[in-house]
Amino acid sequence: MKDWQGSLVSVGQVDDLAHYLNDFLARPLPLRADTLDSIIAGLADWAQALGPELGGETGLPFLKTWWRASQLKGVLRHEFGADAQQGPLDCAPVLSERGWAAVGTVLHWPAANVPIQPLLSLTSGLLSGNRNIVRVPAGLVTLMRKMLECAPPGMMDVFERVLFLAFPSDRRDLAEVCAGRSDAAMVWGGREAVTQVRGLSFPHWARIQVFGPRTSAALVLLDGHLMTQAGELKKLCRRIARETWQFDQEACSSPLALYVQVAASTPAADEAEDVFLQMLAQAFDEEQRAHPRHELSARTSVDIAKARADWLLDDRQARVIASEGPAWSILHGGRMNREPKLFQGKTLNVVSTGDLEAIAARMDSSVQTLGLWIRDHDLEQRVARTAQHQGVDRVVRLGMMHVFNTPWDGHDLVRPLCRRVHFISTPIERSADA
């Protein structure tokens, strides 16, 4: 691995960690007018260097897209304004009446189930001009080392702002050392991890950004146009399959449940859902051949088999459409008011409903993203307004559930890690003999 100043360090003792942090925080950072452009260019070059040697790591295509210069500049324009100063680094190092400053040091605590998340979280800390402490989950250390090896020489200056640390998640003593030296935190993960990090002894002024455990769903209206256009129906099913496959259904934006309403005017309405399910199964099978699951733990295989069996045993009208092995599953049917048992592992619950708007009204803030395929504009608007009123942050067209921008989970990504500063220079009158 290249000898980056921001290389990954494994720590096990409090004194060693304190030494690393004190040295890191004492390191002077350059104040140059081109710092923001340098960071954006460095990330864009790094994205290009993340090649096939990394394999099919979950989310890697997304990270490469996220690090495009046009994408990052778009995030800044959206959050700060097209004609305004776009953060602390987008200016010469001089005081002005109103401007932006970094909060200081940001602790990034990514979840272990999304491999790109340490670098995804870090991006916000870099664009906001902060120092960054990135705690790398144990299961991602090997991948992070490989990704650091891909970093181009232009990242040397950028890495002056970063310290990657590896230590077990249950080492509260080490986590406390990091929290005590942080002015902000970006926390990702499940309820237990979020609660743990929130309970650390941060300074009272610290800003805590939480991206906690959430789920996502999709709503589809099978109308007459869709059911008579085989090409459009196939396109819809392909999009649903790809939404399910990305991130191995472990991301908060992955659909776990799909609610389907057959419009009253649909020809052969009683057959429409069967036709849709057959084409959806074909799309799942095609996606499996294109992006096969290479590794599957015995525990996951057992959980998938149990989820299929439980679905069938709970209701005689339920059915399972699935691959011969545990590659993918579609759980469908049963009572109209039956709540799906949400399960990951490329397992999609398809629930029949007579009222998509009523489904949206049952949602709450635990739902992050809602994917829609509704040609009826008025119904689409009502469903979207209802869902957002209930607490859903993102309502998008199916095919865009993983196409993130800012805001994310209802938060801006860069602005919360900045301070809005105010400086007024008052001329001092001096006497003639001074």
UniProtKB/TrEMBL annotation:
<keyword id="KW-0521">NADP</keyword>
<dbReference type="InterPro" id="IPR008670">
    <property type="entry name" value="CoA_reduct_LuxC"/>
</dbReference>
<dbReference type="Pfam" id="PF05893">
    <property type="entry name" value="LuxC"/>
</dbReference>
<protein>
    <submittedName>
        <fullName>Acyl-CoA reductase</fullName>
    </submittedName>
</protein>
<dbReference type="InterPro" id="IPR016161">
    <property type="entry name" value="Ald_DH/histidinol_DH"/>
</dbReference>
